[in-house]
Each structure stands twice: as C-alpha cells, then as structure tokens.
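Hello,

Our lab assistant flagged a job as stuck in the queue for most of the afternoon. It eventually completed. Since we weren't sure the result was trustworthy after the delay, we are filing this so someone can double-check. Below is the sequence as submitted and the structure that was eventually returned. Let us know if re-running is recommended.
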Amino acid sequence: MLKVENVTKYYGDVLAVDDLSFEVHHGEIFGLLGVNGAGKTTTFRMIMSLLEPTKGKITLDGKSVGYNVSEKIGFLTEERSLLTKLTVKDQVIYYATLKGMKEPDILKKLDYWLERFNISSYKDRKIKELSKGNQQKIQFITAIIHEPDLLVLDEPFTGLDPINVELFMSAIREFKEKGKMIIFSSHRMEHVEMFCEKLVILLKGKTVLSGSLKEIKKNYRKKVIRINGDVDIESLSKCNGVIEVNKESLDIIVKIESDEYIDSVFKIVKKGNNITKFIVEDASLNEIFVNLVGVSYEK
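-- returned structure --
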C-alpha cells in the first residue's frame, strides 16, 4: 500500500502541497486531479523521492519512499523524458538497467511490448525519428518494463489516437488485475471515470474533494436528464429546479438541482411527441470538478 500521511511541501515561502493524505491499495487505480499549479507534480516527485516533504511522510508497503524502494516504482511523466539521440533499444536498456534489470530480460520484455504496441520495426530507430505518439509508447514501456508495484501515470494518453489509447488502457487494466497500485492523472475526465475507483482533487495544494468516485457522484445533488423526442424546450427551461437546458445533435440535456425535480420535468416531457428516451444520470466528473474549482479541467 502507498500511504501519503499529512504531507506538506513548501518551496521557500510558497505552499505547494497542504496537509495531503491518501492511500492507494494493491489492485487499485487512484485518481489525482487538479488544474495546473494544484500540486500534482510536486506530489508525484515526493512519491518518487525526488523531493522531500516539508512535513508528513510517504511510505510504500510500510517503508519510507527512497532509493531502497525506487525499483518498485514506475513513473510516466507528462513531459517527455527520453534521450532522443538514442535508439529505442538503447533507451529502454538504459532505463531498465537503472531499475535493476539484466539485459537479456530487458530485451525479452522489450520485444513483447514493442509487438504489443505495433512498433517492433522501430527497435533500432532513434527516438527523435519517431512520431510523438510512438515516443509516448516508448516512454510508457520504460515506465512498466520492470513491472513495478506502484505505477504513476501523469497524462499517459498524450499524443495518442483512440486506437492507441485503447492499447494503453488494456495494459493498465492488466497491471491492475496483477495487483499493482496505479496513480492516474489525466485532464480527460471520461478516462478518469473509466479507470479510477477513488480520487483526490487538489486546488492550490489543498484537498477539496476525496473519496470513492461512486459515492462522490451519488452525493452530488445535481443530476442530468437525457431526453430524445419533440419537447417544448421553453417550458422545460422555466420548470422549477431546472438549471439549464441544452439541445445536442441527438438529445435534449436538462440539468436539475436534485432528483426532487425529476417528476416536474417528466410531466412536461410526457406532453411531447415521439419520446424515445428519458434517462436520469449522475452529473459528470467534469461538471463536479468545474463546480469545485471554477474552471474546466478538460483542454
């Protein structure tokens, strides 16, 4: 288990992380979210023992994080950290050797992952000759090749098309099934909702929301109703408890203050024609995020 206990970090007089606490258990994907400057990168660097907390402690399976547990951690950074003049093979050998692996094992696993990500032909190509998406694949391979117990993924899908996003998702789910601990950060909220059982949202270094995603969405009072059919939108907009009504290409989206107003909306909808859909949904994680921090996290 990764345990972050009452961690605070100052840069001089600037407070970057303020009394942060959370746990990540084996076989769990944990979301760490926040806009730029929220304290995510500082937190990642403290987990990697690249920075020392000003206060508090961080432990991995009961041991303080540091050089003694570095081989158990894999980290995919948001920024590219590849040595672009090296070949793919030499790059991966370099990083995996730092994690304690022997070259025969490195090459065997490298061949597996290159084939898995459909880039076997790039093994002897220099990093700088690869597209941004393929560079991201190599960076991901360097983070996972030693099969770490804790995998930290900061914006892992950067530069990837939908097909390659699915390849990454499949690999991440496999690591979860193997009992690995995964910290996941992404500005794509739909990815967070697909992956994370628990999460923390940071604002200026302080936790503004934490807990299980299921409970967070359940406890958020505002709901969304999806309607398909011919409905009087003006009447919906004037309905008590309705926050806003938007017309999308297929559906009418009605946002309401709470589920107390579902019946009022339904009374208007049933007066319409050709009604084929009336679905009540929890608010999206992005909407909850915007409500908490005042801006959208999606780019």
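-- support follow-up --
The delay was a queue issue, not a problem with the job. The result is valid. DSSP finds ten helices and 14 strands in the chain. The chain has a mean pLDDT of 93.
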